[in-house]
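Shall we go through a protein fold together, starting from nothing but its sequence? Please make up or recall a protein chain and show it to me in full. Go ahead whenever you are ready, and we will take it from there.
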Amino acid sequence: MESHLQPCRPHHHGELPCNKDEEDEERRHFHQVCNSYQQYATFHQVTEQGVNHRRERLLSSMNAVVEDGGPTVESILQKSLSQQQMKKNNELFCQATIRNQYFLDNVLKHCGAMTSQEVLRYRNEVEAFEVEWTTEDQISKIDSVLKSVYRDWSIEGREERSVVYDKLLGALDKYLPIRGNDDAVMNNSTDDDFNNYNDRGPPRVAVPGSGLGRLAFEIYAKGYSSQGSDFSLPMLLASDFILNGCSGTDTGSHRKFAISPWIHETKNVKSLQDRCRAVVVPDVVAAVEPSDDGELAPDFTMLAGEFLSLYSHFLPGNRCVDGECQADSVEKFNAVVCSFFIDTAPSLPHYLITIYHMLENGGLFVSIGPLMWHWSGHGAVLPDDLANGTTNETSNVQGNFINAKHKLRTEHLDQRYLQSVDFTWEETRALIINCGFEMLEEEFDIRTRYTSDALSMKKVDYDCVFFVARKVV
């Protein structure tokens, strides 16, 4: 197999290229993300300095002195944390931020952006340089990237990810085996179907919401043509670096980096050493030994963009240009594999319909995850939003009408929040069946965590649902 790892660049489907406004917006977004990468260490170091400042405020507070000679705030703090120990803690934390910044700088260098040190030198050379500081929200996204790197690409994260990935990979082995795998059984499919897709090359598998790309890579490593995708540019920059920028000079070797993915955590922490501890990434070489299969070799691509935008060209109405339909020119997938993905949909029916049209007849829809519904919790209708038959009627809710107050209160929101529905699993299952799938497997209460700190005093368990559905011919 020959590895075709393509850099993660903005990828667009459709009849027309991006207009100038869209291109300008992409540049602004790319600059914003790079800015947060570049300022990561500085941001966290300043935040930690703010914690030390709070300690000083405690010492000067009104209740710091007790007249009866008993314990004081000053005596308690000074005995528990001396100046020498505080200095050691600051050094430990600073080393952890620099460790993370070095990894992030390598990501920036790989995508052609300035590193944190290059930005610093540039600032010193340019007079009256005005710094465009990033935000807490942007830094939190980089924190999430580092935790995802830990989950997908470290030895320590293997236990957590394997609970999910092994189920998905096992389903592919069982229902969509690679030619030459004598142990696999093509369940619920004919020999003609099996030979057909193998004659055309390896089965094609889409992995939407693939994040740091480990699942998509593992699918590719098993011999499938794998296409990952994700909407988050911070995630995609890091996955592009790990997949394409970590190969070593010697065959089978790769570059390794130490990161501290928990330095942003300040609650439920047993010690500063726990926050600052390091893990090594990546744990494997993101490459597959080449073979002599030629055009039948699998390929591996990663796309950047929102799911519906990336795959809307599979929908029947989007295959026609100037009256000419191109249904046969769109090569469909043999499977769509989702990990912690379907509950990210602002509109689950639209996601399901798109997945249906992405698949060949008899194609597999494999998924595992909870039902968190990421677009939930915004724009709820409140009693004061209801009016009976006013001139501001906009929509009907059980005989009442939503008035203009609701529209005014929610106009700042992305309108997708207002169409998001928190479906139960029973409702979700019915939607999948009504869309044109049949259930082959369904399993509940698969307990796992997601980017969880094993040493934290608080851990969140998800009892996930796993299912394998097939597009009905």
